[in-house]
Amino acid sequence: MSLDSAFAEILGENVLAILAYAALGLVLFVVGFYVVDLATPGRLVSVIRHDRNPNATLLAAAGMVAVGVIVSASIFATDAVLLEGLIATAVYGIVGIIGQVVAMLVFDLLIGLKIKELCHETTLQPGTWLLAVTHVMIGLVTALAVI
To answer: Which parts of the chain span the membrane according to its record (predicted)?
Structure first.
């Protein structure tokens, strides 16, 4: 029993696309993580791992979910060749991350929810939930705009 060469070629191309999108998604997750890191006191990894701060953890996790939703929607919406799809996904991902930063600044300036202060709290704060939902909402809005 042998594989049809057209099927094998399509399978190979799809595996390559999966690996390329997964690598790009990972890069965008890291960028998103470090954007949240800039807004938190100290190194975010240390605040999460050593201080076990639930506020920093929730904000980082919400940012990752948002980026994942954007990347997924971009992959779904892309009917282009692989390179064009990767470029579109990178651009949409960066736009979503920028949207999250703008939302954090707006909440800081207009409502007074300061991420640095929230991340000093040892118990999960209501303001953190609001910011986390905002991250996810920005991801969903960006994703739907892509589709």
So the answer is: 15-36, 57-78, 90-115, 127-146
For the segment 73-86, the average pLDDT, to the nearest whole number, is: 85
Which range of residues forms the domain containing residue 79? 23-146
Contacts (Cβ under 8 Å, ≥6 apart) of 57: 48
| Contact in structure between 102 and 30 (CB atoms under 8 Å) | no
Please give the structure tokens belonging to residue 28. 């965008």
Query: Among candidates 105, 131, 106, 109, which has minimal Cα distance to 118?
Result: 131
> Per residue in 47-65, pLDDT tens?
889 989 999 899 889 989 9
Number of compact structural domains in the chain: 1
